[in-house]
Amino acid sequence: MTKLFRHETRQSTARTRRLYARYELAHTIVDFAAAVLFLVGSVLFFWDETQFTATWMFVFGSLFFCVKPTLRLTREIHLFRAGDTETLADAETLD
């Protein structure tokens, strides 16, 4: 059974708790940046002379929205590997 996207994996050690916190911070920053880009871009669409800039803000905002699920999947793989490493180290000490 997979350990991806499971609360126990995120809270299993001090290291996984730190990793989880760092990824959550990065995810929040990316989320906030995307929201600001879309908000400012939306306002800039009110004037013809700023529509080009508004379009680019939407493109970058969309890019940030694409980064969000990538961060989550990367976090889960990172946490899974961190857990596997500790399990392997424990198994070696038993031999």
Automatic annotation (TrEMBL):
Domain of life: Bacteria
Transmembrane annotation, as ranges: 25-47, 53-71
Keywords: Membrane, Transmembrane, Transmembrane helix
InterPro entries noted in UniProt: YrhK_domain (IPR025424)
Keyword Transmembrane helix: yes
Segments forming domain YrhK: 22-77
Protein name per UniProt: YrhK-like protein
Native source organism of the sequence: Roseivivax sediminis
Lineage of origin: Bacteria, Pseudomonadati, Pseudomonadota, Alphaproteobacteria, Rhodobacterales
